[in-house]
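Homework help board

Subject: predicted structure for assignment chain

Our instructor gave us this sequence and asked us to write out the predicted structure in token form, then describe one feature. I got the tokens but I'm not sure how to describe them. Can anyone check?
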Amino acid sequence: DQVVRGAIPGYRSGSRFRIVLPGARRSQGAALFSVVVQSSEGEALWAPLSAEAYQDIVAATNWKQRTRQMMEYYYADLLEYAVVGTANRLKYDQGMFVKNGDGAVDLEPIAHLYGSQVYQLARYLRVPAEIRRRSRSTDSCPLEQSEDDLYLLLPEEEMDLCLYGENHGIAASDIAPAVGLKTDQVQQVYQAIQAKRAAAEYLRAAPVLLPESMEA
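My token output:
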């Protein structure tokens, strides 16, 4: 509440908010986060976030993910089960998970599949349509928030195409018509993919062990 109030002075505790990126279709240059507050009258109030304010919100939402994962492991220990992750290829590659939160799992069975392939698999397995059609939410902030608002520059289906293109060395000019973007916009997405992939190395890394020579 304190962080959001610093960006939007009229914010009242208990009001719903979310943090958003401008997305590849609206972004001009560097993509910067903003906070959106829904007022009691239903009006959307926007304000940019400083790096420090954004980091404060991320720390709080990561804490929520880690607390939830502790509950999952409680029942896994109780029932002698394994904890199974749900990250698809895009999310695992781009670091759209919380270290020691939803990233703390024993098995990642679909991390090799693009999101669109996961939905194809869901149809094949006859997962109920109401589940497959449900909007994809990060469940991070009080106000409903899509994954592309929070982290991805495009809807997942289009990000899948861009990730495939980047992975296979396909020119941005060839991917652009498929996602309805200009070539320079796809190139911007390619650059964002590479940057987030590098940042995600930390999320996937095992604990660092000190060499024996440094032991007491």
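Reply (TA_rk): Your tokens look well-formed. For the description, you could write something like this. Residues 51-79 form the longest helix (29 residues). That's the kind of observation they're looking for.
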